[in-house]
Protein backbone atom coordinates (compact mmCIF):
# COMPACT_ATOMS: atom_id res chain seq x y z
CA UNK A 1 0.00 0.00 0.00
CA UNK A 2 1.47 3.37 -1.00
CA UNK A 3 0.27 6.92 -0.49
CA UNK A 4 0.88 9.57 -3.13
CA UNK A 5 -0.52 12.91 -4.22
CA UNK A 6 -3.60 12.85 -6.42
CA UNK A 7 -3.06 13.32 -10.15
CA UNK A 8 -5.71 14.69 -12.54
CA UNK A 9 -5.92 11.27 -14.23
CA UNK A 10 -7.21 9.83 -10.90
CA UNK A 11 -10.37 11.92 -10.87
CA UNK A 12 -12.73 9.28 -12.31
CA UNK A 13 -11.37 6.47 -10.13
CA UNK A 14 -11.55 8.61 -6.99
CA UNK A 15 -15.08 9.74 -7.85
CA UNK A 16 -16.13 6.09 -8.36
CA UNK A 17 -14.52 5.10 -5.02
CA UNK A 18 -16.39 7.84 -3.15
CA UNK A 19 -19.72 7.10 -4.82
CA UNK A 20 -19.42 3.37 -4.12
CA UNK A 21 -18.59 4.06 -0.46
CA UNK A 22 -21.46 6.51 -0.08
CA UNK A 23 -23.95 4.06 -1.61
CA UNK A 24 -22.73 1.01 0.34
CA UNK A 25 -21.57 2.42 3.71
CA UNK A 26 -22.82 5.96 4.38
CA UNK A 27 -26.34 4.95 3.36
CA UNK A 28 -26.80 3.32 6.77
CA UNK A 29 -26.70 6.78 8.42
CA UNK A 30 -28.41 8.96 5.77
CA UNK A 31 -31.46 8.98 3.53
CA UNK A 32 -31.14 7.84 -0.09
CA UNK A 33 -32.04 11.40 -1.14
CA UNK A 34 -29.21 12.88 0.95
CA UNK A 35 -26.70 10.40 -0.52
CA UNK A 36 -27.81 11.00 -4.12
CA UNK A 37 -27.53 14.79 -3.62
CA UNK A 38 -24.03 14.35 -2.25
CA UNK A 39 -23.11 12.15 -5.21
CA UNK A 40 -23.97 15.04 -7.55
CA UNK A 41 -21.09 16.95 -5.89
CA UNK A 42 -18.64 14.03 -6.09
CA UNK A 43 -18.32 13.79 -9.87
CA UNK A 44 -14.82 13.69 -11.47
CA UNK A 45 -14.93 17.43 -12.25
CA UNK A 46 -15.77 18.21 -8.60
CA UNK A 47 -12.84 16.09 -7.42
CA UNK A 48 -10.48 17.83 -9.85
CA UNK A 49 -11.59 21.22 -8.57
CA UNK A 50 -11.21 20.17 -4.93
CA UNK A 51 -7.70 18.92 -5.64
CA UNK A 52 -6.78 22.37 -6.97
CA UNK A 53 -7.62 23.99 -3.63
CA UNK A 54 -6.28 21.30 -1.29
CA UNK A 55 -3.45 18.85 -0.89
CA UNK A 56 -5.22 15.72 -2.04
CA UNK A 57 -3.77 12.22 -1.44
CA UNK A 58 -4.67 8.75 -2.67
CA UNK A 59 -3.82 5.34 -1.17
CA UNK A 60 -2.90 2.79 -3.83
CA UNK A 61 -3.00 -0.99 -3.68
CA UNK A 62 -1.31 -2.95 -6.48
CA UNK A 63 -3.93 -2.32 -9.11
CA UNK A 64 -6.23 0.40 -7.84
CA UNK A 65 -6.89 3.34 -5.57
CA UNK A 66 -8.45 2.16 -2.29
CA UNK A 67 -8.63 5.38 -0.26
CA UNK A 68 -8.35 9.14 -0.44
CA UNK A 69 -8.23 12.25 1.72
CA UNK A 70 -7.44 15.93 1.46
CA UNK A 71 -6.39 18.84 3.66
CA UNK A 72 -6.81 22.53 2.93
CA UNK A 73 -7.25 25.90 4.60
CA UNK A 74 -10.34 26.32 6.81
CA UNK A 75 -12.26 29.14 5.08
CA UNK A 76 -9.06 30.64 3.67
CA UNK A 77 -7.30 30.91 7.03
CA UNK A 78 -3.55 30.32 7.35
CA UNK A 79 -3.66 29.15 10.99
CA UNK A 80 -6.63 26.79 10.71
CA UNK A 81 -7.06 23.86 8.33
CA UNK A 82 -9.68 21.31 7.46
CA UNK A 83 -9.84 17.70 6.28
CA UNK A 84 -12.00 16.83 3.30
CA UNK A 85 -13.05 13.78 1.31
CA UNK A 86 -11.69 10.99 3.54
CA UNK A 87 -12.96 7.72 2.09
CA UNK A 88 -11.85 4.09 2.08
CA UNK A 89 -13.39 1.49 -0.25
CA UNK A 90 -15.93 -0.66 1.65
CA UNK A 91 -14.04 -3.95 1.23
CA UNK A 92 -10.79 -2.33 2.43
CA UNK A 93 -12.19 -0.71 5.59
CA UNK A 94 -11.03 -1.80 9.05
CA UNK A 95 -7.46 -2.51 7.94
CA UNK A 96 -5.71 0.69 8.98
CA UNK A 97 -6.02 2.58 5.67
CA UNK A 98 -8.09 5.38 7.21
CA UNK A 99 -5.45 5.79 9.91
CA UNK A 100 -2.76 5.92 7.21
CA UNK A 101 -4.68 8.71 5.46
CA UNK A 102 -4.97 10.76 8.67
CA UNK A 103 -1.27 10.22 9.46
CA UNK A 104 -0.45 11.48 5.95
CA UNK A 105 -2.66 14.56 6.31
CA UNK A 106 -1.10 15.26 9.72
CA UNK A 107 2.33 15.50 8.09
CA UNK A 108 1.17 17.92 5.40
CA UNK A 109 2.18 21.58 5.54
CA UNK A 110 -1.47 22.67 5.88
CA UNK A 111 -1.62 20.64 9.10
CA UNK A 112 1.79 21.69 10.41
CA UNK A 113 1.10 25.42 9.98
CA UNK A 114 -2.32 25.25 11.67
CA UNK A 115 -3.19 25.83 15.32
CA UNK A 116 -6.54 24.14 14.86
CA UNK A 117 -7.95 21.50 12.49
CA UNK A 118 -11.70 21.24 11.88
CA UNK A 119 -13.40 18.26 10.26
CA UNK A 120 -16.90 18.43 8.83
CA UNK A 121 -17.52 14.77 9.67
CA UNK A 122 -20.21 12.41 8.48
CA UNK A 123 -22.19 10.58 11.17
CA UNK A 124 -20.56 7.41 9.81
CA UNK A 125 -17.00 8.59 10.42
CA UNK A 126 -17.33 10.16 13.88
CA UNK A 127 -16.12 7.11 15.91
CA UNK A 128 -13.11 6.86 13.57
CA UNK A 129 -12.15 10.54 14.00
CA UNK A 130 -12.60 10.32 17.77
CA UNK A 131 -10.20 7.37 17.71
CA UNK A 132 -7.79 9.62 15.76
CA UNK A 133 -7.87 12.16 18.61
CA UNK A 134 -10.47 14.66 17.38
CA UNK A 135 -13.25 15.94 19.66
CA UNK A 136 -16.64 17.60 19.23
CA UNK A 137 -16.41 21.35 18.54
CA UNK A 138 -18.15 23.21 21.39
CA UNK A 139 -19.21 19.83 22.78
CA UNK A 140 -21.95 19.52 20.12
CA UNK A 141 -22.46 15.82 19.41
CA UNK A 142 -25.52 15.96 17.16
CA UNK A 143 -25.53 16.58 13.39
CA UNK A 144 -26.03 20.14 12.16
CA UNK A 145 -28.39 21.30 9.39
CA UNK A 146 -26.06 19.79 6.79
CA UNK A 147 -26.13 16.40 8.51
CA UNK A 148 -22.51 16.79 9.65
CA UNK A 149 -20.72 16.93 12.99
CA UNK A 150 -17.91 19.40 13.52
CA UNK A 151 -14.87 17.81 15.09
CA UNK A 152 -11.61 19.55 15.91
CA UNK A 153 -8.10 19.21 17.25
CA UNK A 154 -5.85 21.96 18.64
CA UNK A 155 -2.10 21.79 18.13
C1 LIG B 1 -14.25 6.42 8.22
C2 LIG B 1 -13.29 5.62 7.33
C3 LIG B 1 -12.49 6.59 6.46
C4 LIG B 1 -12.32 4.83 8.25
O1 LIG B 1 -11.40 4.12 7.44
P1 LIG B 1 -10.86 2.66 7.86
O2 LIG B 1 -9.78 2.31 6.92
O3 LIG B 1 -12.00 1.73 7.99
O4 LIG B 1 -10.26 2.98 9.32
P2 LIG B 1 -9.04 2.21 10.06
O5 LIG B 1 -9.13 0.75 9.76
O6 LIG B 1 -7.76 2.88 9.71
O7 LIG B 1 -9.39 2.47 11.58
C5 LIG B 1 -8.57 3.27 12.42
C6 LIG B 1 -9.07 3.14 13.85
O8 LIG B 1 -10.38 3.67 13.93
C7 LIG B 1 -11.29 2.69 14.44
N1 LIG B 1 -12.57 2.81 13.74
C8 LIG B 1 -12.77 2.95 12.41
N2 LIG B 1 -14.09 3.02 12.14
C9 LIG B 1 -14.71 2.88 13.34
C10 LIG B 1 -16.08 2.83 13.74
N3 LIG B 1 -17.07 2.97 12.84
N4 LIG B 1 -16.35 2.68 15.06
C11 LIG B 1 -15.38 2.55 15.98
N5 LIG B 1 -14.05 2.59 15.66
C12 LIG B 1 -13.75 2.74 14.36
C13 LIG B 1 -10.64 1.36 14.11
O9 LIG B 1 -11.08 0.36 15.00
C14 LIG B 1 -9.17 1.67 14.27
O10 LIG B 1 -8.80 1.63 15.62
P3 LIG B 1 -7.44 0.84 16.06
O11 LIG B 1 -6.33 1.43 15.21
O12 LIG B 1 -7.31 1.13 17.51
O13 LIG B 1 -7.71 -0.59 15.73
C15 LIG B 1 -14.04 4.59 6.46
O14 LIG B 1 -14.76 3.73 7.29
C16 LIG B 1 -15.00 5.22 5.47
O15 LIG B 1 -14.62 5.49 4.32
N6 LIG B 1 -16.27 5.44 5.87
C17 LIG B 1 -17.33 5.89 4.98
C18 LIG B 1 -17.07 7.25 4.37
C19 LIG B 1 -17.03 8.36 5.36
O16 LIG B 1 -17.91 8.51 6.18
N7 LIG B 1 -15.96 9.15 5.25
C20 LIG B 1 -15.76 10.30 6.05
C21 LIG B 1 -16.37 11.51 5.45
S1 LIG B 1 -16.23 12.86 6.60
Task: Put the structure in a nutshell.
The chain has about 160 residues and is of the alpha+beta class.
Task: Based on the model shown, name its key terms.
155 residues, alpha+beta, Aminopeptidase, 7-stranded mixed sheet, 34% helix, binds coenzyme A
- Give the uncertain stretches in residue-range form: none
Largest sheet: 7 strands, mixed
Shape: globular
CATH H level, superfamily name: Gcn5-related N-acetyltransferase (GNAT)
If strands are numbered along the chain, what order do they take across the biggest sheet? 1-2-3-4-5-7-6
β-strand amount: 25-35%
What is the residue-averaged pLDDT?
Answer: 98
| Total domains | 1
Q: List all distinct small molecules, including ions and cofactors, that are bound in this structure.
A: coenzyme A
- What is the H/E string? EHHHEEEHHEHEE
Kindly state the number of beta strands: 7
User: Could you say which structural class the secondary elements and strand pairing correspond to?
Assistant: alpha+beta
Q: Under the CATH scheme, which class?
A: Alpha Beta
| Helix content percent band | 25-40%
Amino acid sequence: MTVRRFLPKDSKEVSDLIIKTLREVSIKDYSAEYIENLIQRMQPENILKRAEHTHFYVVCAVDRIVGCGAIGPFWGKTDESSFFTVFVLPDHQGRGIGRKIIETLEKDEYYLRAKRIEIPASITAVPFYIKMGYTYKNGIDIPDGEGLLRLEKFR
